[in-house]
């Protein structure tokens, strides 16, 4: 069954309407970081912007099913940090107020590469903000939720594109409201649809089935994998480093790892494997074995302020 729907601006609720005419409306599929930022920018050009996401609960400090990779570290590096701050002034202060950790890479990162502990190079002499991805997402999400003209529809899955009669223009999206039976669907009109639904996007299949050639894909598979656990930071840890990165260097040393601090006094502890050397999810102690790496970082290479 197909219902035409129009969007109510109140509380992100969808109401049915026989005559939905969405003038100057943009729709963004996915409240990924890319989706949230795209909506923020589109909000400056479109009367209305609607973000839809299949996850039912988006404003959460926990992990949500649509972003399983959120359990791994998502450190905000300098460039991304500057761009976010430019779009959302005061965002860094807000993240820090929620417990994010500012890590000055040049002074506070213990960095192992090319067989020894060394200082990060000049281009890495940067501040990064360490926190969980849910914290980063929720802070940006809250900014978006109060931005005039923006509506967020959780629990809605994009299922297909709507086209004009000549199949020359995308005119909206077909949606499934995940709170309703599987057979019920609705649609949302749009002048522009942005797909930020990530690596599992069905857009290439949609385009093929509509007779268009999907964009060519180039896959470069480094066969890289992470295994992450979250630990409480040991009470005995007093530095001298805040974060640690043991860089994998395939093919000779495909194993690596990192410790990144996060809010609430916790650590992301991650094992990294390249070139098909996938890290175990058990017995992590045996992962990084080179003798040189067992040594602690030498004081020569440790943060100046803590020597
Ligand atoms: C600050 C930061 C640091 C990072 N650091 C690293 C790193 O160190 N190493 C690394 O490898 N990667 C890193 N990444 C990249 C990250 O892990 C993912 O690659 C990135 O989040 C993109 O994932 P994705 O393409 O799967 O989309 P996602 O970000 O997972 O977003 C997809 C969204 O679309 C929604 N969605 C999907 N399909 C539909 C649909 N049909 N209808 C409605 N909604 C839908 C999902 O629910 C989800 O919310 C980082 C990213 C950020 C933002």
Notes on the structure:
The chain is α/β, with parallel strands linked by helices. The chain has two domains: 2-72 and 140-209, 3-Layer(bba) Sandwich (FAD/NAD(P)-binding domain), CATH 3.50.50.60; 103-129 and 221-306, no CATH class. 18% of the residues lie in helices and 30% in strands. It has helices at 33-42, 78-87, 91-97, 105-108, 133-145, 203-209, 291-294, and strands at residues 2-7, 14-16, 25-29, 48-52, 101-104, 109-113, 116-118, 127-130, 150-153, 156-163, 170-177, 185-189, 192-195, 225-232, 243-246, 255-262, 266-273. It has a six-stranded mixed beta sheet with strand order 7-6-15-16-17-14. A five-stranded mixed beta sheet has the order 2-1-12-11-10, with no helix packed on it. A four-stranded parallel beta sheet has the order 9-4-3-13, with helices on one face. The longest helix has 13 residues, at 133-145. The radius of gyration is 23 Å and the shape is globular. It starts with a strand and ends in a 13-residue tail after the last helix. The relative contact order is 0.18. Residues 1-22 and 299-307 have low confidence and may be disordered. The structure holds flavin-adenine dinucleotide. Flavin-adenine dinucleotide (FAD) binds at residues 29-33, 52-55, 66-67, 69, 73-76, 80, 157-158, 197-200.
